[in-house]
Amino acid sequence: MTSAGAGLAGAGSGEPHVVLADEAHSVEVLDSDVVFDGKVWDIRRERFAYGEVTLVREFLEHPGAVAVLVMDEDERILLIQQYRHPIQSRDWEMPAGLLDVEGEDPIAAAQRELAEEVDLVAEHWETLLTLHTTPGGSDELITVYLATGLSPADDIFEREAEEVDMTLRWTPLDEAVEAVLDGRVRNGILIAAVLAAHARRSRA
Fold first, then answer.
1. What residues have CB less than 8 Å from 27, skipping those under 6 apart?
2. Which residues are 32's β-sheet partners?
3. How far apart, in Å, are the Cα atoms of 126 and each of 42, 65, 138, 149, 168?
4. Span 73-84, mean pLDDT?
5. What is the chain's mean pLDDT, rounded?
6. Which of 107, 125, 117 has the alpha carbon at shortest distance from 163?
7. Which residues does the annotation mark as catalytic?
8. How far is CA 55 from CA 25, 50, 51, 58, 118, in A?
9. CA distance 162 to 141
10. Which CATH architecture has domain 65-203?
């Protein structure tokens, strides 16, 4: 008897290798309405044709976001501890913000957020990764940048709301990886960025 795993492995053995990648797939949207108009984002309900059936799905409509993994010459990353009401927790995360300025380039938004949240500017910027945070319930796409070559910003920005009592901490990348693997930090964007930076360093 052939096991299911062996069958799957054998099925592709004689076929050309296909690069692993998400695939864009459009469907016919029959109705699309905002059912909740929120302060920060909206909830949209759409009815669409999928194969032989019609489906209805509701999702959080998101403007998109950017985040910054800030790394100094000693491979320490700058983390922010900030209160997040939906999870009733002060979680560790990175400087980040919404793409809520019309026409603003994402990297310009990332540079703005870095200055506004931690009073830093960076000389070198590169894309670390892009990710859909919760594709089953939101269309949010976030771009995470790696920022190096740091120096103080010219201006010190006034904090407000949940940013008033933020805690900043420089943490060695290896220590952050251990915190992720031990389950001591749970912010999904931070987890993805830390592991991506670790993998990137290993490949280099």
1. 48, 49, 50
2. 46
3. 31, 16, 26, 12, 23
4. 96
5. 91
6. 117
7. 163
8. 15, 7, 10, 10, 44
9. 23
10. Alpha-Beta Complex (3.90)
Q: Are 94 and 171 in contact (CB under 8 A)?
A: no
Residues above pLDDT 90, as percent of the chain: 79
pLDDT of residue 101: 86
Q: Which residues make beta-bridge pairs with 152?
A: 120
Q: Are 151 and 123 in contact (CB under 8 A)?
A: yes
| Beta-carbon contacts of residue 14 (< 8 Å; ≥ 6 apart) | none
Name the CA radius of gyration of the chain, rounded.
21
CATH 3.90.79.10 domain range(s) in the chain: 65-203
d(CA 192, CA 204): 18
Q: Mean per-residue pLDDT for 163-192? A: 94
